[in-house]
Records
---
Amino acid sequence: MERPYNRARTVKILMLLFVLSAAGYLFLLFWINQRVETIDVSGCEVVSSAEMEYKVDRISCQYGYVEISGYAYEPGVSVDQADTVVLAYHPASGIYYKLPTENVKKEKLTKKADDGFNYDYAQFKSVTLRSKLPDGCRVCIWYRGNGENRLIQTEEVIFY
């Protein structure tokens, strides 16, 4: 015996499949973006503030997350390829943690420098779960823009 077509039931099933797919996608996206990896920085050139212009603008530890934002660029060299990563260095264990980092486009650095070079993509932002990092980590910046491989060790410390 054939059942008659039930439009309401079909719509409910399709909506349920859509919601489950969207929830799965968002969970996967969250999981991928919260990966904190240990890395080896032995091949990096350690630089000072005389060679690079950098600043960690904000470190915020709220609601179970650590948010770090700032900028890093080499004065006199346009940032053609934005590839800056925030690292957390734990001095007691000697381990560097690579944090999920987003490069942010803002024109204010270029306007502030006013030297004819483009620093629009020099800013970064990182948001990480607090539970992924040990307390007392120092913030480091791994500058890989324009094919460089430089490590900037800041004096900023992450406290909960």
---
Amino acid sequence: MIKRRVTELNAVLADWDEAKLPNGQDKYFSVAFVSKKGEFRFVKRGRKTGLRMHMKDNDMKAVQPVDTDGMDIGHVYPVWIHSIIFYSGNVVMNLLKNGN
């Protein structure tokens, strides 16, 4: 049986917002979420990107799938933050702490 850690949504959002590692390289992560159409989506390796909307007002993030060399593959997925199930191998508890 695989043991997974439970991560709070605030920690996921803070980690997602860091686009670069301390050495200047792009930061990659995996994410599983439910799309607007109710489909389960899993991005094995992706990076932070933007959308043509005010993402904070709409509680949205965006992920661009990439290959092992960091080249874009597929299209950008919009992600409603409350639909995130797994982030970098951890189960996400979709509750925000007070103040956010």
---
Amino acid sequence: MTPPAERRYVMTATEADFHRLMPLAFPDISYDAETRRFVPLEGGWSLELGAVGRLALTSVRMTTIEVIFRFDGADSAAVFARFMLYFQRGGG
């Protein structure tokens, strides 16, 4: 059996952004506060929120958050395409 695929990213976003946008991007998503993980009802993948940090570029300060995607049967390209529709900033 193939282990689930994992992809990690650091995004300039806040945890509040995820709570606001994930239900819009994936209406059937649930959130487990204990594990800080979003899981769709149909399964196949999950998104876990990791460490929070700060990015400083000269006088600009932004909050960052580690995002861990785990895929276990879902089409990762389709999940990412939908995710990016709601989370991409600055017009690409």
